[in-house]
User: Fold this.
Amino acid sequence: MVASNDILRRCFCERATQFLGALLAGGLGIPAIAYLLRPANTIQPGGFVDAADLSQLKLRIPEEVNFQRVRKDGWKLITEKSTAWVVKLSESEVVAYAPQCTHLGCAYHFNESKGEFVCPCHTTNFALDGRVLGGPAPRPLDRFPTKVQGSRLLIGTIESAKPVSDKKGA
Amino acid sequence: MRAILDWIEDRTGLISTISHFMNEEIPASAGWHQVFGSVALFLFLTQAFTGIMLGLNYGPTPGEAYHSIRYIMNELTGGALIRGLHHWGASAMVIVVVLHMLQVFLWGAYKKPREATWLAGVVLLLFTLAFALTGYLLPWDNRAYWGTVVTTQIAAGVPGIGPYALRLMGAEDGVGVVTFARFYAAHVLILPAVTFLLIVFHVYLVRRHGVAPEPGDEVKPKQKFYPVQVFKDTAAIFGVFAALFTLAIAAKAPLGRLADPTDTTYIPRPEWYFQFLFQLLKYCEGPLELFATVVLPGLAVGGLLAVPFLDRAPAIKVTKRTTAMAAALLCAIGWSGLTAAAILETPKEAAIAESMGPMDWVQLTPTELAGVGYYAKEHCANCHTLGLTDEGKPGPNLGTGGVSHDVAWMVAHFKRPGVPMATMALKPAEMNALASFLVKLTPQNAQKMSEVPAFATDGALLYQKNQCGLCHQINGAGTNNGPPLNGLAKRRKADWVKDHFLNPQKYDPDSTMPSYKFNARDNEAITAYLMALP
Assistant:
């Protein structure tokens, strides 16, 4: 009888230790995983920034424009230089493309003789309207939201720019 | 499974080492009173873990530290919990380490051959306090800054080594970036490494000599560490952790205002376990001061180190160790008496200054001041009273807002007010501003706060609407991207400020400030507000 009580006690102690140990690991581990992997609930200043003068733009000739943008980087509010490729597709339509190739994020440039955007990294070609003409890019060029005020073009922020690693083969 | 374990055992010997460790023989008398060492070890590992977690999102310089902690607490999931665990864990660590020491002391477990184990333990207690002292500065809020100013000044007053201690702490010219770097490096590089090594040594010594037996144990059969004692240790660890976890959720770790070396109104107060020294310091004036700052702590540490050499009598039952009990009781009474006195006495002037809240509208942050504006805009005064008078309005007097509810409660209340109160036409950010104002109300300041001049609230509303706080700072709120706006009247004339809004680049071509085309009335209001800031 004594021996079986001892075995019962031993068994209970082992199980209880494992159970409490698991609770401890969960209590520390789960908050840590959420802390490291959940996106920060940062409110980006956002808004539209004055970026280009429309009257200077020629029809269907892309222009690389520079502008200043205020962005929250972690806990810091920073002012940084930002660029966009701006194309007046028609008199009524102006688009502003994010300056990274949608394949792996290289900076592309405009090839005047072909009239296409060309990414030097893996030779993706994009048409003036952002379509992929050839090469490995998985989707058209990302567009910034834009607003026109008089002759000024205002550029907003891409709400959830897809990270480069989203793509297959990245 | 069996094959994998065999492989690991064959190549590393880990399995038999663990089994040897777990099957250690311990005296028959071992039990619940011996759990504290394991709990202390667990808390050390938890502090290391949560500390690393904080370190992954922490900017370790005075310019960044405070803002990064704000970010951890407000913007990261679980950030407040992790900082809470680390903050309250420091207190838990001190409590458990002292309890561990008390148990060993009362049972006389420091006696031959365990003197070295005790000495290592005393040094580990000092390391624990050093962790607390260096970690105290790292949030870089007023509490951290002023607390450390006092610490460094106490060290500076020690005869002979004072100036060197001050230089070692990088605080010769006051608490600054060098002090911060020294404290940070001590807290995350030096102390963890030496503490870990000393813990290994301490545990090694415990194993070498075995858990101290009580008289009578020699005739009883020994028990194994695993599983009964392991379960008791784990249960105690779990109890402590559950309490710590609850505390971390229920009580947010404090983060005051950004450290302000010019804030002369701030009264620093040490952590609760150092309050007894703080209190003692009040009784000791002039040359006696050294008694509280050097002699007593020196005697205490020296006394602890000497314990195993003063008491060399053979081991007796814990119930017969009356001298040890008397000594421990005396220390406990002295400590708690002084701590109680400190708590009873100090809040009189300090807590009142804190609990009266801001007495003048210029002390409010722009957000809070805009809240005054929303209070008027939503006609809250139709139903509510601020201040001590009872005007018989239907809604409750809001003069005690700061005491009874927090911002989250108020915003939830604004959104779903319940039957008697009208819903509001405010946006969430505006509700936050209103709530942040209401929580600042106390019976002492509510009357004054209902008399804020209109230009101030109008100015603050514009300031809020145009998000000036994204680049500027007023009364510690906002960022330092642009120049701080307190004391603007000393630097600029009102006309300059008004014109500068319209075209900042006219005054500085490199200015990144956008132009704000205020109409004349708005420009007058925001300028008057800014010029009124001290």
